[in-house]
Design brief:
about 350 residues, alpha/beta, Rossmann fold, 2 domains, six-stranded parallel sheet, 17 helices, 6 strands, about 10% strand, globular
Length: about 350
């Protein structure tokens, strides 16, 4: 079956109610935020259905693809039901990867929830045999960018999810500021939810103040310093924020900003690996202002795609820790883990 970010929720709600989850999901990631949220929702449904164990594989053309078949076929001593996430590091998995994914589509998966995430899954990817095989065998989730004409309504729904409403001019302004970058839009909505303290709707003045005052919490310093390789400065900024604000006030914004910048580096690194000019690629990816673009370029040139994707996984773990959940192998203090990510990206 084929779903998008809007039609996926009713499907998962029905499965959650039934205590079941379909075994195979293909996430076509053309919009990182929607793809991340789709994966989170599928994962939550799987856990509700009893999938208590999770394994994440980051795979590319040069990977040992036997590990995917091994992960699907292995027997666990701790859980009969498991989640397996195969995250492709590039749109093309290579010859061996394509063969492994076609084989996966034909493999029985009792007790499993297997998610295959494909970045930049455009029409060329959709025409490939392995993609068609996975889509036919399981559920395809299209995570396409939100069109500009639909963006104000999309932002309005996100704000309602935070318990807020906004004037039409405020939504138009927010759409103008965040067009083409839903991660930035989600970050701004979270900031507005934290800052808005009146009973009326969010106004144009509040949006302008929030969007334009990016240095309010000095959040940008954390990820920018890490991207530039200055781990000490990034950690000092983290400690400063920890001393000035409560965890609930600033941690969501920090994680959004960090994750957004990591995804920008991943997207830019993919362009660099294809031989594109760094500055031209940054402009096409709408990475602004100039200082931010320079930091993203520096980080993308220094860090591998695999390392960046690992950092994203840690950010997702920190989000769970912040919400009070235990993550095996991680410290229970989200601030300590955040500093470890900053140091990891600085090297």
């Amino acid at each position: 079956m084929r779903f998008n970010s809007a039609t996926l929720s009713p499907k998962l709600a029905a499965q959650k109610k039934a205590g079941a989850v379909d075994p195979l999901w293909l996430i076509a990631d053309r919009e990182p935020l929607l793809a991340q949220e789709a994966a989170d929702a599928i994962r939550a449904t799987a856990r509700a259905a009893g999938c208590s164990e999770r394994r994440v594989l980051v795979l590319g053309a040069g990977s040992d693809w036997r590990q995917l078949a091994e992960a699907v076929g292995e027997t666990s001593l701790f859980s009969e039901r498991r989640i397996i996430e195969a995250r492709l590091s590039a749109p093309s998995p290579g010859v061996r990867g394509a063969a492994a994914l076609e084989q996966l589509a034909q493999t029985p998966m009792p007790g499993l929830c297997v998610m295959v995430s494909v970045p930049q899954a455009d029409w060329r990817v959709a025409k490939s045999q392995w993609f068609k095989a996975l889509a036919a065998a399981g559920n395809l989730v299209d995570c396409d960018p939100v069109a500009r004409a639909q963006l104000p309504a999309w932002l309005g729904r996100r704000l309602k999810g935070e318990g807020l409403e906004a004037t039409e001019e405020a939504l138009r302004c927010l759409a103008d500021q965040t067009e083409g970058n839903l991660l930035a839009a989600a970050q701004e909505i979270r900031k507005l939810a934290l800052l808005h303290d009146s009973e009326g709707p969010v106004t144009l003045e509040e949006v302008e103040a929030s969007v334009l005052d990016n240095s309010r919490y000095d959040v940008a310093t954390v990820s920018t310093s890490a991207m530039l390789g200055d781990g000490a400065r990034a950690c000092r900024a983290i400690e400063g924020l920890r001393g000035e604000f409560t965890t609930s006030q600033v941690m969501p914004i920090l994680l959004y900003t960090f994750s957004e910048d990591i995804r920008r580096m991943i997207a830019l690194r993919a362009r660099l690996d294809q031989g594109e000019n760094a500055q031209a690629a940054a402009r096409e990816l709408r990475i602004f202002p100039r200082e931010k673009a320079a930091a993203v370029i520096a980080g993308a040139k220094r860090l591998s795609t695999a390392k960046l994707r690992n950092a994203l996984v840690v950010c997702a773990d920190i989000d769970q820790i912040y919400k009070g959940l235990e993550v095996p192998g991680r410290d229970s203090d989200p601030w300590i883990e955040l500093k470890s990510v900053a140091a990891f990206l600085s090297r």
